[in-house]
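Narrative progress, year one. The postdoctoral researcher (J.K.) led the effort to move from monomer predictions toward full complexes, under supervision of the PI. The following entry was the first complex the group processed end to end, covering 797 residues in total.
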Amino acid sequence: MLDHDNLARCALRRSEAPVAKRTTSPFLQFIAINSVGKTFAARTGSSISVLDCVDLTIAENEFVSFVGRSGCGKTTLLNIIAGLEDATQGQITIAGRPVTGPGQGQGVVFQQHALFPWLTAVDNVAFGFRKSGLNKTDRRQKAMDLLTLVGLEAAASKYPREMSGGMQQRVSIARALALDPQILLMDEPFGALDELTRIELQHELLRIWEAQRKTVVFVTHSINEALMLSDRIVLLAPNPGRIKRVFDVDLPRPRSRTEPRFNALYEEIWDELST
Amino acid sequence: MMRRFPQIAPPLIALAILLVAWELGVRYGFLKPYQFPPVSRIASGFVELSTIGFPTGVSIWSHTLTTLVRVLLGYVGALALAIPLGVVIGSFQVLDKLTAPLVVFCRSVATLSLLPLVIVWFGAGELTKVFLIGYGCFWVMLSNVIAGVRYVDPVLVRAARTFGLHGGELFRRVVLPAALPRIFAGARMALGVGFMVIVGAEMIGTIEGLGALIMEARTFYRSEITIIGMLIIGVIGFAISAGLTALERLLLPWAGNLDAVRR
Amino acid sequence: MSEILKTLRSNDLALGLIGAVAAVGVWEICARTGVVDPTLFPSPSLAISAAAQRLTAETLADNLMWSLFRVFSGFILGALAGAAIGIAAGWYRGFGTIVRPLIELLRPIPPLAWIPLAIIWFGLGEPSKLFIIFLGAFFPVVTAAYQGMRSIDPVLLRAAQTLGLDGLPLLLWVAVPATAPDLATGVRIGWGLSFGVLVAAELIAADRGLGYMIINERNTGGSVGVIIVGILLIGALNLLTDAAIGAAIKRWVGRWHGA
């Protein structure tokens, strides 16, 4: 759907307040978010704009974080990329194909673990292979491999309620990897975990990301977490949800919180966030 | 208003279609009027019931009143016994453990299975019906009162202790109010049980009351009167549960949704 | 002495047993000493011996089997229909908006009030009893299934969608299992109601079954002891089957659903 009014309005907005250089090379446009907006009809008859004129391109194998206050639309934007919600304006393409629904190569990890409580860890991961055409034993075997990847082969026969929050999120990541997605979309996946587990899982995620060469879009409210993980940090602002600024994090990995440049970037993002 | 209309319309239309199909089905001989009395006949039956009455002289209102009085007597009696007894049993762990299997068993005894025994005791009169309702209500109420008092959140009790409350005052100010939602849930369940029991109890050995009305009407091939009786029973059942929910909100505005209470 | 008391206090089962034995003992003593009239309320020992005299094992087993057969078949039909309709009403919005108000309209009518109409529709034979028991199971299960469907955590459905499921597979593999705990509660309530309804139906219109056995005993002026034994037997049967269903639910649902 090409809405010319929307495109023109967003182009004007871009020229007034440039947020980042736009990559035009098709090789670097793995995920292309073009003038995406989302409005809800409110009860009173007016409409609420959750997202407005979001333009962003994400390259293949890139690790991008969305940071912002609650209500800035970061989860909504992630859901639109996932195909779980529709944009009311604009369009998103993945490798040139418009997103029309879930299951187009997007693996999703949710804020709460979203594991099926009636399935054991290995069966939860095997559930991810349901559409793969594999038989039951092969599905289980592949699921075990993924559980091993996230370091949980010993907990394979545990039910979600018998696992700690950290274990639950590990299983969620394994399940999201089941269909070998090109993109991993993560919505505050470590937000509910304690500090130690959270740091542990951040390292784990980087390891998996580097080993499997995925494109990761990561929503978080923690600037620290975004700085530890990402190649780029997209700062969103509320009312209406829009991109305020994009930061390049060109620090070598593994990163350290004590590094001066880490802290300088932290301050910079914090300033932008609080004004 | 415009937004709510489409939600109410489809079921109303479905109901109307059903009733018209029913009426036409009888007219054109697909359904037997005795088995499926059409709406028109139910309406004229209602007029007859509220004026002449069935059996003659006993109007629908007097049937309803008889049933309600029986339920109320048994219910109030059961509550008057069960609440103090339940509070005592619930307050002492040993008493609760001693009586638990007994209470569970007595609650499992199907109330109406007592009917033959109670008839031997009290004859087929009013007392039998009131006793049966009382029995059904009593055990439901008792087990809920015990559970309510017994399983008060220990954090509340500990918090109250830090303010120096103990003994009778702790019980009156903290334990009892905390148990009230559960007690109320029990009272609601008990009324439902009482209402269920009365319909069955009235089907044997009496000609007054709604249960008797629908059974008698059947033996005289007056199925439209049976259906009217059922509808009135349904309306009363609905009014009772709606009334109790409203009362609960009024009396316990701080309590959460009691449908979430596990039995 | 105090040691014994202490171990007793911590042992729920032993305490409960003592309570039950004491209750039976008090009953026995009251009847023996004439505090209550033994012809109206015989002592447990008298009741059992009277029952042993008047009931052959064969008639007892026959009545028992009939009651169990009726309650099981009616309950299973009612629970299956209730689950199917409740789940469909929760999943398919159009079906739900039409069916649910009709169910809500009929739900306040207790199953027992359907007895006369059931006889009008199906005659005095087995189908009318089946129908009443069916209703006893149907309404609690249909309500629980619908409410269970409505309270599914949407994130579970979304997670399954991201794994490529939609339509019927999404319903069968995700929505239905997610409803299982609510469904189990409904099934248990439905079983209790079916059982109560069974006894009433057998009292009012039947020529065999445990309910018939006790009302027949009273109508033919038989022994109160037999009636009492019958009542206790029905109670024990209810308790046992309910415990069995509870244990089965715990086995299937309890291991993954904290209960």
